[in-house]
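Reading is simple: each integer encodes one residue's backbone shape. An example follows:

___
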Amino acid sequence: MKPILKIAAGSIAVGVLVFAGKMLAAKVSGSTALFSDALEALVNVASSALALCALIIGAKPADEVHNYGHAKAELLSAVATGAMILLAALLIFHRAALALWHPQGLAALESGLGLGLVLNAVAGGVNAVWGLVLRHYGRKDRSPALLADAQHLFSDVLTSLGIVIALLVADWLRMPRLDPVIALVIAAQIAVMGWHTVMRSISGLLDEAPPPEITERIHNLVRERASGAIEAHDLRIRQAGHASFLEFHLVVPGEMTVNESHAICDRIEAALKAEMDGVIITIHVEPPEKAKREGVLVP
């Protein structure tokens, strides 16, 4: 099994462990806020399972049906993860609203509440460490699925920290109604995170252009390696999970031979592939009358 698949599989195991710890914390404390945090942990387990499936599918090579490979499976996984986060927010909101309407007392800090907060804090620490692992491998392998999973874990860590502090305050002030109020805040925060996850992933599915700095770097590499050509225009790039697809038109002098123009293309491709691991490049060579005097002008 590839390292990235092992990491994704590890996320499921870590998620189950954290979920069990947070559910136990909610049970011994009687806290709606801690229950809400446990429900979010359950979403982590589901999203990790989706990420693993997406990585397995995305690693399949291109075939006759999917000529550009299966890398967009990761983006679909990230969209599904965002949708599950939104669903979790809705369920938390419903539970918190009921608790606010029919408030129940929290367990004493010296017994159930204290134990619940400790268990929740430990689970949050586990999430923090694993989130760093996921972010490292997500950036290394350019995996939207792992990065979305890591972002969710970091958000969960902040939520857990906020819950611990808020419940300590609620116990100190003897205000049990703060518990469902905290849960409502958690629901709103989770909903915002889920919305951003969905929109980010949809942008990838719609082949959103890369950031300007990446486009500028590509232009510079083409300009540096295209000596002998006239210009490069109509440059387009799209990202599909870990795969990148780049295409542009290269205008060369009319008297240039096929071998000479091919050599220029080889130089450009080598430079771009050294900069962008795994990029698939398509260059369309054109005669001088096709020049547009725009894009990348070769000195």
User: Anything to note?
Assistant: Strands lie at 231-240, 243-251, 280-286, 296-297. The chain is about 70% helix and 10% strand. The chain has two domains: 3-205, 212-297. Residues 3-205 form a domain with the Alpha-lytic protease prodomain-like fold (CATH 1.20.1510.10).
